[in-house]
């Protein structure tokens, strides 16, 4: 396991999550920024896979681990962004989706599991980084593309 590759990918994902949580944005830029944050797992996974090289399976494992670590940071950042008084930045959109999406659930369910809905949403968004990281790392260029000479 190339821990340096995993740490570079995870640190990239975590930096994206922290910036999304603490930087306030103008109203018109929040949704595009949220889309960019959700796609951030691809960047961390690509970096982890590219630095790890080796077979696509090896790169996939590195990207998955980097995505899990970065996704944990994203889950914490999103859960923190649900608290009152936090900056209205890229993660404001996650709060909006949870607030408006919960109206489709039965009111008794929403009232009973209110805090857990926020945790579940944060974990779902964090899991997205793990999936993206694995996909991007597996697709990153690696060592299996060596040219084989064919003899006549």
Describe it.
There is one protein chain. This protein has 152 residues and is mainly α. Helix content is 72%, strand content 0%. It has helices at 3-22, 30-38, 40-52, 56-81, 92-101, 107-112, 114-139. The chain is elongated and about 70 Å long. The termini are far apart. The mean pLDDT is 87.
* Class computed from helices, strands and strand pairing: mainly alpha
The rounded distance between the terminal residues' Cα atoms is 39 Å
Provide the succession of SSEs.
Answer: HHHHHHH
Overall shape: elongated
Taken as a percent bin, the fraction of beta residues is: under 5%
Mean of all residue-level pLDDT scores = 87
* Strand elements, count: 0
Low-confidence stretches: none
Largest sheet: none
Radius of gyration (CA) equals 18 Å
Q: Counting H and I runs of at least 4 residues, what is the number of helices?
A: 7
Helix content: over 70%
């Amino acid at each position: 396991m190339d821990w340096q590759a995993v740490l570079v990918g995870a640190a990239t994902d975590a930096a994206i999550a922290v910036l999304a949580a603490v930087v306030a944005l103008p109203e018109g830029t929040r949704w595009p920024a949220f889309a960019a944050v959700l796609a951030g797992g691809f960047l961390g996974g690509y970096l982890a896979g590219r630095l790890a090289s080796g077979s696509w399976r090896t790169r996939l494992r590195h990207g998955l681990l980097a995505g899990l670590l970065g996704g944990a940071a994203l889950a914490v950042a999103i859960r923190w962004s649900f608290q009152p008084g936090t900056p209205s930045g890229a993660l404001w959109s996650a709060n909006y989706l949870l607030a408006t999406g919960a109206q489709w659930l039965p009111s008794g369910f929403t009232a009973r599991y209110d805090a857990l809905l926020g945790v579940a949403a944060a974990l779902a968004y964090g899991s997205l980084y793990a999936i993206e990281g694995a996909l991007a790392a597996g697709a990153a260029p690696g060592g299996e593309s060596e040219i084989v000479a064919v003899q006549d």
